[in-house]
Amino acid sequence: MGAGTEPLDTVVRALRAVVDGQERAASVGIREGRIVAVAAYDDLDAAEVVELADDEVLLPGLVDTHVHVNEPGRTEWEGFASATRAAAAGGVTTIVDMPLNSVPPTTTVTALEEKRRVAEDQAWVDVGFWGGAVPGNIGDLAGLHDAGVFGFKCFLLDSGVEEFPHLPPEDFAEAMAEVARLGTLMIVHAEDADEVVECAHGTAYRGFLESRPDAAEERAIALVVDTARATGARAHVVHLSASGAVPTLRAARAGGVDVSVETCPHYLHFEAGSIPDGATELKCCPPIRGADNRDALWAALGSGDIDMVVSDHSPCTAELKRADTGDFAEAWGGIASLQLGLPVVWTCARERGVPLTDVVRWMATAPARLVGLAGKGEIAVGHDADLCVFAPDEKWVVDPTSLHHKNPVSAYAGRTLTGTVRATWLRGRPVDVDAGPRGRLLRRGA
To answer: Which residue spans traverse the membrane (predicted)?
Structure first.
């Protein structure tokens, strides 16, 4: 039996599937790359029927809205081919690329077109793009918006790369007013430069952590909230690390300010007290904080004060991590985790009694809704047949050389995780990372 009068191309049957926020047995009918029916386990049939194993759960493909691909310009750090293969191997079927660390940054329509040309034939999963808001490019934002970016990224302090300068408060307010006029979204790296001090050279993680205190995030997020309130712009705080900012965000939303917030797998998995000296693979900005802070982030996810979990996949070459010296002042800050996000978050979630349905909401449904991808992030009729086959009880050890991102550096090297992605489907067909790419470049509203 199919959906409607036309036969189905494929039916996927699962004894466990996450549908409508619940886990249940289901069959998913696919036609021409779209989900056209979701029914009970035995209610759909087709010429091709795929039955999941008893230890597998069918999830929607994950949506990761915070990925630094770095191509063109820093392709030795990462590129579209390696990043999207890593995404597919991790159950991620859609990424949205950040406007910096590529050269040129995505701050003009010309730069966006150049990035799209580079990405077009290298995408194993679907790819969208953020535009960048930097001093002097207010006049470029409308053109980028019309060209289909999903919103704009800005920094409130030095970004770490000279071609993407930060917005001082006056420029930030001007950019937010333009974002409000366009009806789009500003995503903000929110740390206050006046609260950040220079990191002392040395191998002690404590020195790096103290250079970027909680107050840097708390103060910057207060500015984001005040500016969003004054301009009426939508704002989104990226990679929240300091849980002390949650009450400010909660109060702002209760008062009608349109502000959302994400956190990342590394802030939910690691804690500062167990980071050994010289472990520069764990350097990121803002930093990984203490165990009590980590617990508070989990609580904020549970209460809905944090909306989603995305990777902030920020890779670099092995040399830039300075494993040779272990000097936190010299090492590049960023954690590459695009392939590992789901098992990392699930490993921690199951230990805390958090159901897989919550993880799916945080890592698929909520990010898709943030950027307006109506056909992504859920197993639902009318959506793309983007699926993830996940074995939630299978344990494995992370070997950086087996990961698909370009440089074999991982903060999770040697760690045992629970949960394996066994297959990823893009528009009704399994993705083969050893075969040719068939991802599409996405535009806002298309």
So the answer is: none
User: What tens digit of pLDDT does each residue of 167-202 get?
Assistant: 999 999 999 999 999 999 999 999 999 999 999 999
User: 313 pairs with which residues across the strands?
Assistant: 67, 335
In a domain, 431, yes or no: no
Does residue 438 sit within a domain? Answer: no
Return the structure tokens found at 163: 């071609």
- DSSP, collapsed to helix, strand or coil, labels residue 109 as helix
Where does 255-402 have alpha helices with state H? 265-269, 291-303, 341-351, 356-360, 366-370
Q: Are 32 and 158 in a shared domain?
A: no
Q: What is the mean pLDDT of residues 277-282?
A: 97
What pLDDT was estimated at residue 3? 56
User: Nearest 5 degrees, angle CA 403-CA 344-CA 399?
Assistant: 30
Total domains in the fold of the chain: 2
Q: Scanning the structure block, which residue is given the tokens 């704009």? A: 152
> Do residue 219 and residue 246 come from a single domain?
yes
Judged by DSSP in three states, 5 sits in coil
CA atoms within 13 Å, Cβ hemisphere of 209: 18
Residues 19 and 156 in one domain: no
Report if residue 378 sits inside a domain. no
- Integer angstrom CA distances of residue 369 from 63, 65, 366, 376: 10, 10, 5, 8
pLDDT > 70 fraction of the chain, expressed in percent and rounded: 99
- pLDDT tens digit sequence for 306-327: 999 999 999 999 999 999 999 9
Task: Give the separation between CA 150 and CA 235, rounded to whole angstroms.
Answer: 13
CA distances (Å), 364 to each of 238, 375, 446, in order? 16, 11, 19
Helix-, strand-, coil-residue percentages of the chain, each rounded to 5: 30, 20, 45
Q: How far is it, in rounded angstroms, from Cα 367 to Cα 309?
A: 8
What local confidence, expressed as pLDDT, does residue 4 receive? 57
% of residues, the chain, pLDDT over 90: 98
Q: Which structural domain range is residue 37 located in?
A: 10-52
Instruction: Look at residue 1 and tell me whether its pLDDT is greater than 50.
Output: no
For residue range 221-235, what is the model confidence (pLDDT) as tens digits? 999 999 999 999 999
Q: Are residues 46 and 129 in the same domain?
A: no
Report the amino acid identity of residue 385.
A
Cα 21 to Cα 4, 176, 355, 365, 387: the distances in Å are 25, 34, 10, 9, 15
- Are residues 272 and 237 part of one domain? yes
Mean pLDDT of the chain: 97
Assess if residue 408 is contained within a domain: yes
Q: Return the pLDDT at 2.
A: 46
CA 392/CA 57 separation, integer angstroms = 7
Amino acid 356 reads L
